[in-house]
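Run log // design_07
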């Protein structure tokens, strides 16, 4: 069990946390001093239970080497605390891998990229995690206030059997995945936690190596990794292979399986598309999946993309049309990564216009202005996310202890 500790500017009791840490670094439990936290360079430890701390606000160095230094400096510490700055998500996974080998270390990565180390502390037997009661009490970069930790991530219900899920890609900040998936886990008593992680293409190989060593159950994959992730998979669902893009990973029996839930989700939102002309803007991972499903459902598909060669090769692989200008359409879908990839004049009143991004793009705004039947990205998001939950369900079968 991980005790939650609130750093406070002025001492105050709170039932929301187990410990209160005051400015002089004393940690109080039920009003009494419980631990005192001292920097590892302190020559002589004070009496009582002492946490010997190492802070590095620049980087996450070799963690084994840091621990050795702390143990040599103060072999009798009650706990060792190692707080380092995450300059990438890989630093955070390195910290989790280290904690996995050293239960009872208070280890965490600071900064926004360190969020997963704070959230998943109970999974790694971390004895104390710091979570301020309010924004004003934040005293280290990346701290998550206790209400968010509990209400979004259900921190107190996480335990060493909890599986980690999440979103990888860059950017990830617009995704509501942490809200949606953690809510489903709780309502369906699935012992999982979902965390968004910035992962850039150059980090993907190392990320996958770390993920295999950690208790991952599954991942959502977003741009720009939907195609890049394919070489790292052990098995690929035949439909996803044909689509040439992956948005869901499942970790099972030591293997990583790839699926795609985007295409069917988009087409389910549109319902009846037989013989309708669907123009898809873009030829990246999302466009491929949607175009594939649209062709399967007997729509007349035309791909339009900034880079014409990519439009042509996608169209050839699917046996559909492509164009350098926007032809007449019944349905127009923006599957590019930009807010407004076309001229407003190409939007036609009364036609169905769908956006897959999760914010109010210029494309959506213009579609509404023009009197199109505008569909934002949320219905598709919810359908593809529900399908991901179904794919992940199996990963809980081997271990059902929850909450
Ligand atoms: P995703 O996985 O979400 O589909 P992606 O694979 O990075 O993301 O694809 C992005 C799509 O947006 C591509 O079709 C890209 O066009 P190119 O193939 O020409 O790169 C398109 N795109 C990106 N920036 C664009 C821009 N400024 N104007 C028009 N299209 C753009």
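design_07 sequence
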């Amino acid at each position: 069990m991980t005790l939650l500790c609130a750093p406070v500017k002025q001492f105050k009791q709170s039932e929301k946390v187990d410990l209160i840490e005051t400015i002089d670094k004393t940690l109080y439990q039920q009003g009494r001093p419980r631990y005192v936290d001292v920097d590892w360079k302190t020559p002589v430890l004070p009496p009582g239970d002492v946490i010997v701390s190492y802070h590095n606000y620049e980087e996450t160095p070799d963690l084994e080497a840091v621990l050795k230094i702390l143990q040599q400096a103060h072999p009798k510490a009650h706990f060792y605390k190692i707080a380092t700055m995450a300059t990438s998500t890989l630093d955070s996974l390195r910290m989790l891998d280290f904690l996995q080998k050293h239960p009872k270390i208070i280890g965490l990565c600071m900064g926004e990229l360190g969020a997963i180390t704070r959230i998943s502390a109970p999974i790694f037997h971390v004895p104390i995690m710091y979570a301020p009661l309010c924004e004003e009490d934040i005293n280290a970069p990346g701290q998550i206030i206790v209400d968010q930790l509990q209400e979004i991530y259900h921190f107190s219900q996480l335990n060493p059997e909890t599986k980690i899920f999440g979103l990888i890609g860059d950017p990830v900040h617009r995704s509501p995945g942490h809200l949606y998936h953690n809510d489903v886990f709780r309502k369906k008593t699935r012992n999982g936690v979902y965390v968004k992680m910035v992962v850039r293409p150059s980090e993907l190989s190392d990320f996958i190596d770390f993920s295999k060593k950690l208790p991952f159950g599954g991942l959502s994959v977003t741009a720009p990794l939907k195609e890049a992730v394919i070489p790292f998979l052990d098995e690929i669902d035949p439909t996803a292979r044909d689509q040439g893009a992956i948005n869901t990973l499942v970790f099972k029996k030591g293997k990583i399986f790839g699926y795609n839930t985007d295409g069917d989700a988009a087409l389910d939102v549109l319902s009846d598309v037989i013989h309708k002309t669907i123009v898809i803007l873009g030829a990246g991972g999302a466009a491929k999946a949607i175009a594939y499903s649209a062709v399967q459902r007997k729509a007349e598909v035309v791909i339009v993309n900034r880079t014409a060669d990519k439009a042509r090769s996608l169209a050839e692989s699917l046996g559909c049309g492509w164009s350098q200008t926007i032809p007449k359409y019944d349905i127009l879908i923006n599957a590019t990564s930009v807010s407004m990839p076309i001229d407003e004049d190409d939007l036609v009143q009364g036609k169905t216009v769908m956006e897959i991004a999760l914010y109010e793009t210029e494309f959506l705004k213009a579609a509404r202005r023009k009197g199109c039947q505008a569909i934002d990205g949320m219905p598709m998001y919810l359908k593809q996310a529900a399908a991901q939950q179904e794919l992940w369900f199996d990963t809980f079968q081997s271990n059902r202890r929850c909450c």
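DSSP finds twelve helices and 20 strands in the chain.
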